[in-house]
């Protein structure tokens, strides 16, 4: 196991514990802050996610969005995500990793993404589950035009520093129950 892999594994363990405790405390304020952050993107195609385990739930904000809304579909290992149109009434089926996905629906290309995470830092970096799906997806979407990535989490999921590597894509904004967090500019030395 490499040093970076070990550091990421330790960070995930710490963040999962913090997220579980925060989840038990509730998430109403976080969704209100997310709705406020999304107002400036009204009408833009957006992607959210259907929460698993103790992930914070963005569905109220997704349902209120005026514009196309999609959720991620894993196309295969090592590939970017695709996004299938979603509504609160959409019939769902199990997808990979336990996340539900709409049974049918058009593919959409989001310009705004609500991104799940295990941990985050104030530089705007996130720690996910380790598959690199969002990093590949954000890299592909950003190459095609402007995209805003909004991390959605509990404040307790914040770490001083998330272990990163050159392929990690930063978030543009992080929203928690304590309010929005504007990340610091990315480190210019990351190339």
UniProtKB/TrEMBL annotation:
It comes from Rhodobacter capsulatus (strain ATCC BAA-309 / NBRC 16581 / SB1003). It catalyses: (6S)-5-formyl-5,6,7,8-tetrahydrofolate + ATP = (6R)-5,10-methenyltetrahydrofolate + ADP + phosphate. GO terms for biological process: folic acid-containing compound biosynthetic process; tetrahydrofolate interconversion. NCBIfam families: MTHFS_bact. Its cofactor is Mg(2+). Belongs to the 5-formyltetrahydrofolate cyclo-ligase family. PANTHER family: 5-FORMYLTETRAHYDROFOLATE CYCLO-LIGASE, ATPASE INHIBITOR/5-FORMYLTETRAHYDROFOLATE CYCLO-LIGASE. It comes from the Bacteria. This is 5-formyltetrahydrofolate cyclo-ligase. The lineage of its organism: Bacteria, Pseudomonadati, Pseudomonadota, Alphaproteobacteria, Rhodobacterales.
């Amino acid at each position: 196991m490499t040093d970076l892999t070990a550091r990421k594994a330790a960070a995930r363990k710490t963040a999962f514990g913090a997220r579980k405790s925060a989840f038990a405390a509730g998430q109403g304020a976080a969704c209100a802050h997310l709705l406020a952050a999304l107002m400036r993107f009204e009408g833009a195609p957006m992607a959210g996610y259907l929460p698993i385990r103790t992930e914070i739930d963005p569905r109220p904000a997704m349902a209120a969005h005026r514009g196309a809304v999609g959720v991620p579909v894993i196309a295969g290992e090592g590939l970017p995500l695709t996004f299938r149109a979603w509504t609160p009434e959409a019939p769902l089926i199990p997808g990979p990793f336990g996340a539900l996905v709409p049974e049918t629906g058009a593919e959409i290309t989001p310009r705004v993404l609500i991104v799940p995470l295990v941990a985050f830092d104030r530089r705007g970096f996130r720690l996910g589950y380790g598959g690199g799906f969002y990093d590949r997806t954000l890299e592909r979407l950003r190459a095609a035009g402007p995209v805003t990535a909004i991390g959605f989490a509990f404040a307790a999921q914040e770490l001083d520093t998330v272990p990163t590597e050159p392929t990690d894509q930063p978030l543009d904004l992080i929203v928690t129950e304590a309010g929005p967090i504007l990340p610091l500019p990315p480190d210019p030395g990351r190339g």
